[in-house]
Design brief:
five-stranded parallel beta sheet, alpha/beta, carotenoid biosynthesis, single chain, FAD/NAD(P)-binding domain, seven-stranded mixed beta sheet
């Protein structure tokens, strides 16, 4: 049996803890906040319930794999989102993107004119070839320079990956309609990046969304974190909330445990779900992992987000809600200017931002049938009082919130007189709540041909120390974070001790259970974690 400490109860940390417990390890999970979920947060106000993190699930099979590998089905109700999103362009054009990829060409032709569907189809097929190359070889395995070199040595594969090409360049080449190019460019923000600097290989992002569909978890995506926490506890993971890890202890060049509340907690393995910058800059002793620290300092931080949580009253005198797609995007006239404001030499709140709204039609998230809750997001520069934007400056959050709502009204959707609840979350708030430096949602931005190589690996330079989560390989977003947990658990492997077939969890060789059966309880004779439970 080996002792594992997981730092952080975000989705990556919870998934890694569950997988490692199922592999027979004694796992303790420490989370500095009083609740779990990390960036997959929730806010409740006056009967409204708001997800404050991801609002769309792609590759739902990846989520189900975690539960299948750790004892059985998740119990979550996952529903298709159709349309995937309603896009409104600066000229007033409206595009409802269907859930079914077979229906996409006709929808594009109807909204943007003949030929738009054929252009999308050519891009979709090209991106499918890229998915064949990277979906398994890169995104489901540890970062492997040799595998990338082998891929680049095959001329056909090298041409498909085209590391010298950006998303912006690929859009200009394949998408003649400027509105379709704007739609395509938006997918760079799924990795927190500028589409003019993002490698064209990230065109797999819209391909995955179309090929495997867009999905919603009934009750809100926060239910994912709840289900993972329940699975961890059913497997015997010792979960400590409000328990901040102050340091990762190292002796003889290898990890020895963590320090929590002034106590030394020994561990054979430490898995860090905190942001990689936090690990290398704050938690490890000075002089440890110098190259990894240097590489992170050189990498550009991803964009952040400015969020409004709006509880809206009825849309008319009859007391009805306003019908509409669950996901809506309003584009500005100058999309490139948005990224100049965020990533330029003098960062500033975006004057004319893209506005994204998630308005789920879910009775569990609103106080009554006449109301609706909106999650409103605009891209923003990170919180950087010294060299950029100080999101804690007096009055800034209120002024910018008013500006976002006025911009939305100017684009034809004015909800200001319907607001019953208004909560503002800035990049500074995200930094405090989720421990993301500057509120950078994805850690580092995917800028340049070497972006994948600059992202921290799951195995750290310190023996016994591993990384999981959106700031590590393979990247941010729910499916990739869950993949990072799979990769990290695979690197650590089963716990030494009992013969194969006696460990917990289906992935560790235990006999199959009936479909839908609850996870097997932890044997009462198996001791709890042998180290003390630290205080807050």
């Amino acid at each position: 049996m080996s002792r594992v400490v997981v730092i952080g109860a975000g989705v990556g940390g919870l998934a890694a803890a569950a997988r490692l417990a199922a592999l027979g390890h004694e796992v303790a999970l420490h989370e500095r906040a009083d609740t779990h979920g990390g960036k997959l947060g929730v806010v409740e106000r006056e009967g409204f319930v708001f997800d404050t993190g991801p609002s769309l699930l792609t590759l739902p099979g990846v989520l189900e794999e975690v539960f299948a590998a750790t004892g059985g089905p998740s119990g979550l109700v996952i529903e298709p989102v159709d349309p995937v999103c309603a896009y409104t362009f600066a000229d007033g054009t409206r595009l409802d993107m269907p859930h079914d990829p077979a229906a996409v060409p006709a929808a594009l032709d109807a909204a943007l004119g003949p030929g738009a569907g054929a252009a999308w189809q050519a891009l979709h097929e090209r991106s499918g070839r890229l998915w064949e190359l990277v979906g398994e070889a890169v995104l489901r395995r540890p970062l492997d320079l040799r595998a990338l070199l082998r891929m680049s040595a095959r001329l056909r594969d090298l041409r498909a990956v085209a590391p010298w090409r950006t998303l912006a360049g690929l859009g200009r080449e394949l998408l003649p309609d400027p509105r379709l190019r704007t739609w395509f460019a938006r997918y760079a923000t799924y990795s927190g990046s500028d589409f003019r600097r993002t490698p064209a290989v990230l065109s797999v992002t819209p391909y995955v969304e179309q090929r495997f569909g867009a999905w919603y978890v009934r009750g809100g995506l926060r239910r994912i974190a709840d289900a993972l926490l329940e699975r961890c506890r059913s497997l015997g993971v010792a979960v400590h909330l409000g328990s901040e890890v102050q340091a990762v202890t190292v002796a003889g060049g290898a990890v020895r445990g963590v320090r929590v509340g002034g106590r030394e907690v020994p561990a054979d393995v430490v898995v860090c779900n905190a942001d990689a910058a936090v690990l290398y800059e704050r938690l490890l002793p000075a002089g440890t992992a110098r190259r990894a620290r240097r590489d992170l300092r050189r990498a550009p931080r991803s964009l952040a987000g400015f969020v409004l949580l709006l509880g809206l009253g009825p849309a008319d005198r009859a007391g009805c809600r306003e019908p509409g797609a669950a996901h809506r995007v309003w584009f500005p006239r100058d999309y490139a200017a948005e990224f100049d404001a965020i990533f330029g030499r003098h960062p500033r709140p975006v004057p004319d931002p893209t506005i994204y709204v998630h308005a789920p039609d879910d009775p569990a998230l609103r106080p009554d049938e006449a109301s609706e809750g909106w999650f409103v997001l605009v891209n923003a520069p990170v919180h950087d009082p010294g060299r950029g934007v100080d999101w804690d400056a007096p009055g800034l959050r209120e002024r910018y919130a008013d500006h976002v709502l006025a911009t939305l009204a100017a684009r034809g959707t004015d909800v200001r007189d319907r607001v019953r609840v208004r909560e503002i979350l800035t990049p500074a708030d995200l930094e405090r709540r989720a421990g993301a430096p500057g509120g950078a949602i994805y850690g580092t931005a995917s800028h340049g041909a070497r972006a994948a190589l600059r992202r921290p690996a799951n195995r750290s330079p310190v023996p016994g120390l591993y990384l999981v989560g959106g700031s590590a390989h393979p990247g941010g977003g729910l499916p990739l974070v869950l993949r990072s947990a799979e990769i990290t658990a695979g690197l650590i492997g089963p716990a030494p001790g009992p013969p194969e077939g006696t460990r917990r969890g289906s992935s560790a060789g235990s006999p199959p259970r009936a479909a839908g059966a609850p996870p097997r309880p932890r044997p009462s004779t198996r001791p709890r974690a042998p180290w003390p439970s630290p205080t807050r």
